[in-house]
Amino acid sequence: MASAVDSLRRLGPGAVRTDPAELARVDRDGSHLVGHAIASVAPRNVADVVALVRWARAHRRPLIARAAGTSLEGGSVPVEGGVVVDLSGWTAVREIRVDERTARVGPGVVNRDLQDALAPHGLFFPPNPGSWTESTIGGHVGTNASGPRSFRYGPTRAWIQSVDAVLGTGEVVHWGSRAAKRSVGPDLLSLFVGSEGTLGIATEVTVRLAPRPAVRRGLGLRLPEGAALGPVTTALARSVGTGLSAIEYLDRACAAELSGPSGFGTLGPGPLLLLEIEADDPAEAAARAARVGTILRRAGVRGRPTVYEDADALWTLRGRASRALDVRLGQRIREDVAVPLPALDRLRAELDRISRTERAPLYLFAHLGEGSLHPNYAVDPESPRGRRVRAALLRASLALGGTISAEHGIGAVKGSFLEREIGRPGVAVLRALKAACDPDGILNPGKLYPPLPRAAAGRPSRSPSGSADGRARRA
Ligand SMILES: Cc1cc2nc3c(=O)[nH]c(=O)nc-3n(C[C@H](O)[C@H](O)[C@H](O)COP(=O)(O)OP(=O)(O)OC[C@H]3O[C@@H](n4cnc5c(N)ncnc54)[C@H](O)[C@@H]3O)c2cc1C
To answer: Is the predicted pLDDT of residue 454 greater than 50, yes or no?
Structure first.
């Protein structure tokens, strides 16, 4: 190991760190897993990244691209012996092309900082995950992240114009173009988005931008306990002339975590519906809010929505749900499934059944408008009970025509479930793609794909109970 680090230092592809504090930092992300890196490197430019990839191929060392490290699936946790490529310093907003409605950015730019840079131009980048004050555009590309406003605007994939990346071969690619539309075969850019650092390391991202709505309002109101979610959601999702851009949900237990004076306390206890509407002026916003109120009443929801003048503040507050549950529950199952809207209540019933059967308290929050649910269960994810809970809820989502990951990715947690969703031929296609982009399997091994026959050097470590894929230990 010492000789590997020595040769890395001699190569000098940016600052190489091996001090315990740094290794402890990069060994963890937002998940319960903990890895075992031998070093972190902060490359300065594309040439450094190319040199790192060549070095990793020669030394058969895993390279793990990392930005803010907020992945909830262990996506940025290094396998044992890995070298973390820290891109969090690549924060430049390099060019804002107002007429093309695009911006060229470094992969380490934090979502909120990008929004601040775009605001004077009347533009914004629509995906706004709950972690938007800390997570980065490179991380969003890695995971195809979404946020509350993805109900109207779609996930990150819809907002990436091009990516510059260094593949696992050491080749530099530019996938995408400046043209507004293209038809040049299967879309390599789309394949890269959501590839979790397993195909290449993005060194520049050109994002698409949307015009900022003149007025955005948050709306919040209590739902009756046990209210069916499907009819309310479909009524809102089908509405015309409401300017709805987000339909979010917190169950009673999650809402209680955010009920302090600076939280949702004024809405009272209970499950909460949180919405956003966009409008051209305050009068239109008020009319739209009234229309939403009418739709809700027709769907059986009583009460006047509370209006939040600052929609971003509402989403920042809503984004705290995950951190609040970290404090309340510590290690837990935090899942990320999505089903068609008409199946919402059947999935909800199944989640409750799992909770009762396994005696695992359920905390649920959701991006309702996309049928995207985050069931949190107060159970050790690596315990036999935790594994049963996860397997049961992923099976339930698939049985209802849904997916095993709406927005967090597969990471180190769900690779063994991938085949159930995309089938054996699908896994074979992904493996062929991986082999073409990363023939030595050096890029983020142990993530996304079921294990490759030819793994890179550096065996992953196992906790006594092992992780879902045995790729990283638990914290
Ligand atoms: C409190 C909290 C709330 C969250 N809310 C949401 C939410 O609402 N919606 C949502 O989608 N997610 C959410 N997440 C998950 C997470 O924030 C997102 O997945 C985010 O996109 C990760 O960004 P990051 O900068 O932290 O990336 P990291 O965690 O550093 O990396 C994520 C993945 O991308 C890869 N990667 C990073 N940089 C590059 C690069 N330059 N090139 C290639 N691959 C790269 C990594 O290898 C890893 O696989 C939340 C997380 C937390 C902690």
So the answer is: no
